[in-house]
Q: What sequence folds into this?
């Protein structure tokens, strides 16, 4: 019996993409969580937001509207606003609540 066929595979959310792809642009820090399995997107976004100590905005690139994210953001003093995005993508602008 080939052991390679019976070994469990790591979930898709494990590895270098587990945090989402990140980059900095003029409008803030972008995080693309579209390829992560739940709860990966929620965890990656909250980890990023909680690491920011100034007024930097976060732009989230997601596959769907992350309903579970909004109460979590409110609890830590952040807001989310849906912004224009290409078809098939939900894009949010996150910022500290005033």
A:
């Amino acid at each position: 019996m080939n052991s390679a066929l019976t070994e469990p595979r790591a979930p898709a959310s494990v590895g270098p993409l587990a945090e989402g792809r990140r980059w900095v642009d003029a409008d803030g820090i972008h995080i693309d969580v579209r390829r992560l399995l739940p709860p990966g997107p929620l965890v990656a976004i909250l980890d990023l937001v909680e690491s920011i100590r100034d007024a930097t905005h976060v732009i989230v690139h997601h596959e769907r509207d992350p309903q579970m994210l909004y109460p979590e953001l409110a609890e830590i003093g952040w807001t989310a606003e849906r912004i224009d995005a290409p078809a098939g993508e939900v894009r949010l602008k996150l910022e500290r609540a005033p």
The CA atoms of residues 12 and 19 lie 12 Å apart. The helical segments are 3-6, 40-51, 69-75.
